[in-house]
């Protein structure tokens, strides 16, 4: 059975994109022009564009038209560490592409809040839902491109027991070492829990992506454990899938 007309149109346009006849950032013909070119109805042309949009090949900009999507050079986040290395709250990023001055990593000022633990945070930290936690939130860029959002959560009792820097907006270089030195809490391991979901409105605005989920988010929940097997910190990192790849190394493998 022959493919539906909209699929034939979509496949033809996709072929032009793959061959480079339609280049990244280039505008497609208008809907009226496509209808005349393929002798198709308005709904058929719209279904073809919708199909290409769902594949992440084109995007429609209100009042402007439909454009071929520019492919992002992906950043690579390595979740694992070599033997003997200590993992901090976040994940290190290395670039697949060559790193130039314009791709210098940077972070925003840290926003600190004290709040009752949200249900998912309480579950990860294994505390009661009304337990107060300290959240330390920052926005991260590589060059000018928004790269990730990261929030670390600590029980507020840590600050009360002798780790007051957790409540300061100043960066803490070596949070693992800081907790060990001030409270005697030693991190012995961590678990990364990775999910994929649609962006919320705040994430869509920061990363400049559509809100409809066509560009999904990686959400990495890193739960750090002390020597008693108790969670001591939760770090939630959100990265858009259009510019990020995740690598997990097992065994003796070369560096990227």
Structure overview:
The protein has helices at residues 5-19, 31-38, 42-54, 119-125, 157-161, 175-183, 201-207, and strands spanning 58-61, 65-68, 75-78, 92-95, 105-107, 111-116, 132-142, 145-155, 187-197, 217-226, 231-240, 244-247. The chain folds into two domains: 5-68, Orthogonal Bundle (Arc Repressor Mutant, subunit A); 75-247, Chorismate lyase-like (Chorismate lyase). It is α+β, with helices and mostly antiparallel strands and 256 residues long. The chain is built from seven helices and twelve strands. Strand 7 (132-142) and strand 8 form a beta hairpin.
**Mean pLDDT score:** 87
So, CATH architecture of the largest domain?
3-Layer(aba) Sandwich
CATH class membership of the largest domain:
Alpha Beta
User: Which percent range describes the beta-strand content?
Assistant: 25-35%
Whole-angstrom Rg: 23 Å
CATH homologous superfamily title of the largest domain: Chorismate lyase-like
Gap between N and C termini: 46 Å
Number of helices: 7
- The tally of strands reads 12
Features:
three-stranded mixed sheet; Arc Repressor Mutant, subunit A; alpha+beta; 2 domains; 256 residues; Chorismate lyase
Write the layout of secondary structure elements.
Elements: H1 5-19, H2 31-38, H3 42-54, E1 58-61, E2 65-68, E3 75-78, E4 92-95, E5 105-107, E6 111-116, H4 119-125, E7 132-142, E8 145-155, H5 157-161, H6 175-183, E9 187-197, H7 201-207, E10 217-226, E11 231-240, E12 244-247
Parallel strand pairs: 3-12
Antiparallel strand pairs: 1-2, 3-4, 5-7, 6-7, 7-8, 8-11, 9-10, 10-11
């Amino acid at each position: 059975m022959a493919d539906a007309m909209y699929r034939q149109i979509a496949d033809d346009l996709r072929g032009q994109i793959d061959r480079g006849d339609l280049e990244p950032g280039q505008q497609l013909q208008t809907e009226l022009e496509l209808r005349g070119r393929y002798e198709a109805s308005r709904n058929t042309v719209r279904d073809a564009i919708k199909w290409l949009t769902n594949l992440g090949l084109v995007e429609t900009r209100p009042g402007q038209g439909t454009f071929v999507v520019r492919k992002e050079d992906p950043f690579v986040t390595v979740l694992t560490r070599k033997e003997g290395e200590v993992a901090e709250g976040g994940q290190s990023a290395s670039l697949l592409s060559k790193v130039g001055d314009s791709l210098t990593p940077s972070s925003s000022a840290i926003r600190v809040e004290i709040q009752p633990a949200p249900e998912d945070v309480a579950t990860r930290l294994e505390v009661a839902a009304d337990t107060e936690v300290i959240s330390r939130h920052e926005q991260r860029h590589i060059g000018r491109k928004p790269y990730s959002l990261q929030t670390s959560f600590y029980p507020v009792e840590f600050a009360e027991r002798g780790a007051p820097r957790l409540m300061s907006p100043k960066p803490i270089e070596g949070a693992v070492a800081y907790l060990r030195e001030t409270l005697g809490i030693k991190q012995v391991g961590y678990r990364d829990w990775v999910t994929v979901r649609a962006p919320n409105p705040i994430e869509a605005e920061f990363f400049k992506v559509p809100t409809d989920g066509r560009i999904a988010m990686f959400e990495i929940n890193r739960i750090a454990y002390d020597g008693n097997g108790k969670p001591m910190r939760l770090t939630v990192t959100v990265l858009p899938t259009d510019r990020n790849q995740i690598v997990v190394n097992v065994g003796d493998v070369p560096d990227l």
